Amino acid sequence: MKRHxxxxxxxxxxxxxxxxxxxxxxxxxFFDSGITKSKSNDFTGALQAFSMAITLNPENxxxxxxxxxxxxNLKDHRGAILDYxxxxxxxxxxxxxxxSRGVSKSRQxxxxxxxxxxxxxxxxxxxxxxxxxxxxxxxxxxxxxxxALADFSKTIxxxxxxxxxxxxxxxxxxxxxxxxxxxxxFTKVVDITPKRPQAYAGxxxxxxxxxxxxxxxxxxxxxIELSPDDAEAYFYRGFAKSKLDDYKAALGDYDRAISLKGDxxxxxxGRGFCRSKLGDQKGAVADFNQAIDINNVNVDAKVVYTGRxxxxxxxxxxxxxxxxxxxxxxxxxxxxxxxxxxISKNKQGEPKAAxxxxxxxIELSPxxxxxxxxxxMIKSAQGDQKGALTDCNSAIKLNPRYAEVYYVRGLxxxxxxxxxxxxxxxxxxxxxxxxxxxxxxxxxxx
Length: 446
What we know:
This protein is mainly α. The chain has helices spanning 16-19, 25-39, 43-56, 61-73, 77-90, 95-107, 111-124, 129-141, 145-158, 163-175, 179-192, 197-209, 213-226, 231-243, 247-260, 265-277, 281-295, 311-318, 335-347, 351-364, 369-381, 385-398, 403-415, 419-431, 436-444. TPR repeats lie at residues 27-60, 61-94, 95-128, 129-162, 163-196, 197-230, 231-264, 335-368, 369-402.
């Protein structure tokens, strides 16, 4: 059975009939709707359905679990973990909940936390090959290669035709410098999936380490035939050809490796070596210079926005938010008039005057959530992210279900380097129905 690395477990949806028998009928209907939407890949719709089921029956672990799966499929792994936490609180014997939480923790690079979840899942269900495989992957990510090897071997014991497990075990053996053992595993992958280029490339790399350079070239030829843009395969084939003193052919491979991956300093070194052997000393020196410079690049630039979101990205994503204020009856203190005039002034390119009007609106009506949010939006556009955060905090305190505020606050937090806090806010925005948050989560929270 072919496995993909750390799947989102979309097939682990719980059957509603056995898990919600004691829930209210309306909660069951929402739950069933969530299951149906999940199966049709409408994960946003599923999330909303499970949220309604939770509102009507907050003690049903399956609703939290399946909402977690929906969030995970929307790449909102932080939000998914919170739901899995609740599902486990309600039902501590659910192996799938631990397994799924481990997957989401892995996607957030919390491999030690994932290990604990996978181990607990294995305790509850010791014959689940996927749990062993996932635990092996997390172990390898934190350099626990011996433990990873044992987990991949157990996966293969339970699923003898699992090509992915053989492949990852082969890579793990390379890490442990067991190149002969890795060749055997890569060969097994080739037998099961003969058109998988990574298996030929991996076997070729191991053959290089075993000084079987002719065998390495043959395997790397096949890898490149199946995947013509694999820079590493060209590099290793060039290296093997260099070892066979075929410098002219090796030069072409190094050229191709560099064209596909311009920062491969090892390829520059290899090409320089070949050029030197072929009498092109000027070209050789130029390549050696590149090998030295690329390997020692140390950029220490001052960054104001310390997250992955730059000022420009923040502006673009924040400006997606549409004005949602509707006309309301004008109160005797005229706060609504100041608010509306402030919005108009901002649209006319007068942000400072707009802030003065919004200040007045808030002074007259201190519970005016929209005014805080609008003022925060203007402050953010003017580069005052800390002031914007303060206004967003006030708006959320006044209206805890104001989805757009969570969205904007999440963007600002992320841009200032608080990726975890930002992504949790984006998750909350999506949970409250502001679906553009999931595109940002997909791009910046994984």
